[in-house]
Structures are given as structure tokens and as C-alpha cells.
Amino acid sequence: MANSIPMVDLHGQYLKIKADIDTALQQVIDSCAFIGGPAVNTFTCHLSDYLGGSRVTTCANGTDALQLALMALDLHPGDEVIVPAFTYVASAEVIALLGLTPVLVDVDPNTFNVSISAVAAAITPRTRAVIPVHLFGQSCDMEPLLKIATEHHLYVVEDNAQAIGAEYIFSDGYRAKTGTMGTIGCTSFFPSKNLGCYGDGGALCSSDEALSERIRMMANHGQRVKYHHDVIGCNSRLDAMQAAILDVKLRHLDEYNAARQSAAQYYTAALREVDGIRVPTVSSNTTHVFHQYTLRVLGGKRDALKAFLAERDIPSMIYYPLPLHHQEAFHNICRHGGDLSFSEQLAGEVLSLPMHTELTTDQQDRIIDAVRDFFKQ
User: Fold this and answer.
1) CATH numbers and ranges of domains, the chain
2) Which has fewest Cβ within 10 Å: 93, 126, 183, 206?
């Protein structure tokens, strides 16, 4: 439909950079270096520069990045890894895949990010790591989390799939990009992400050279030298075409994030006074790059609002309708690290509105008017 509003407008974004994307892809085709090669090496170096010099290893997707991080830390079956209950399944799925124990903790109902006090309360002698998820585009409260991790000798694996380009501001004023503060940072290049390719892709970063070398080895069948396998690894690599696309789009990432921030400000200014919803809270110690613009719809009206928007040809999405402790796959393998009531509450309230780099104010006005009309009924 001509007047429909996309949840994500990848085609519109592509058209603005079409010449550079097409040239980059043609260069890969001409080189026939489809696995590894110059395109992957160039993007890896540029992403490292963007992240302040952290050592980067690319891989096949964001889930692989999380799994490789835990594999590289040499954890053992039964070791506990703390993860928020309100997140995408991949954050906890990789813990279970490796025979580790996911310990689910609650989140802050305002920021949607993991509760630092819940993490502290969930630590036991078996806890080895924590996975803070920078959900929807803003950083977790990393300073106290890193302090707790240091005190208890825990690894910190940042799930940065939704917040690449965001910055956390420490109490002394130091600013660090999400994904660069913990032991390892992991990200996804799924097409709809703030930095997305045209297929699957992921990456890990770390300031530890030895750990980074181990990650690279794990991602390459456990080998440093071809046909000499030191450990059991896997095969996870970013193909050259996706790397070429990402290298073009990386040049625009700050511009893309600024466009999302501008659109979020427009939403918030128009919706903050609407009775019955809560607009996103942006913490004072982090920037927010708005992978999603997520409302809390109060009074049990979330599903009705979603249906009302659909009637007006306006898409919306629920991220996420079930917290992890209500997922069948986790019933018998996880431990609850305390009360999870906020995660349950959010699962019944959250609704994400269209958010992308090509969103126009005319489109937003249609969305805003529809939300307002619903609550005038």
C-alpha cells in the first residue's frame, strides 16, 4: 500500500547509499575473495577504530558472537551465568547450549535494562559471568556492574546487539562505547540493527589481546595454524559481501543514530503527556541510539492499541511477549535469581512503534495521531 508506514525501511536507506554499496559488492565479486580477504580485513580494522581500538573478531551472527564469547572464557558445565529475564532468547540460549546454568534476574521497569541490585543478589559461589543486555539502544548501568564483577571475579559479556554507537558516561566523565567496557562485547549485524548488513553477521571485541586471539581461534575450528586444531571450536565467519556492505554503512552509523535520536525526541515530545502510556526513559549516564522506540501501555490496553494501529495500517511490534522464565525451553534448566515481577509486567505492557533512519515527520504525525485517538475513546 502506497501510504503504508514500514516498521523498518531498509530499501529507503539503501537507495541513499546505493552507488557505494553497489561498487563495494562489485569489488568483492571481481576479487572472488568471498571468504575472508580484503573486505573482511578492512571492515574489521574500521570497526576497531570506531570502537576506540578494541580488538575485533567478526563472525556469522550475533548469537554466534555470544556463544564464542562464553566458549573463549573456558567455562564449565554447571557454572552460572547471570542474564536478564526480559531480553531476546539468544542472550540466554547460548548459556544453555554450552551446558551452563542461566540465572535469570529482573530488570528496571524504566530503562528495561538489567537491575544492578538483582545481579548482586543473585551471585553464588558458582557464578562465573554476567551478560548485561543493552536493550533497545541504551547502555546498562555499567559502572556499578563492573565494580560488582571485579569484587566477585566475574566475567562481563556485553550483549550490544541493539546499542552499537551508544556511549556510557562514568562518574568521572569518561565516556565509553557500549561493547567496550566488559571482558568481551558482542554485537549483531542483522539487517534491522542500527548497523545492519543484508544477511547475517556479528562481531566480538575485547581489549585483551590473548583473549581476542582465543576468540579468533574458536571461530575458526579451534585452529591457529591451518589443519592444527588446538581446541574444539566452530565455523563462524562474516562473508566478504556482508563485510563490504557493513564497511560502507559504518561510515554513516553516527548519522543513522542521530536520525533515530531525532525521531525519538519527536515521538516523546508529542506523546509524553498522553495518559495511559509511558514514553522511554533515557538514563542520565548513557546516550540512547533507539534501536527501538518502546512504549509502556498501561491498564491492560497494549493489545487493543496494537490492533487499533493495525486498523490504520500502522505497524507495531511487541519485544518481548514472554519473559525467559515463561519460555518452555527454560523451565527446567534455569535458576531464578530473585523476584522477576518487573519482567513479567513489561512483557504485558511494551509496544514498539516504527523506528528507522528514513522515518519522516509526516509518518510520525500519523502514528502519533493514531495513538492519541486511541486514548480519546
Assistant:
1) 10-250 (3.40.640.10), 253-376 (3.90.1150.10)
2) 126
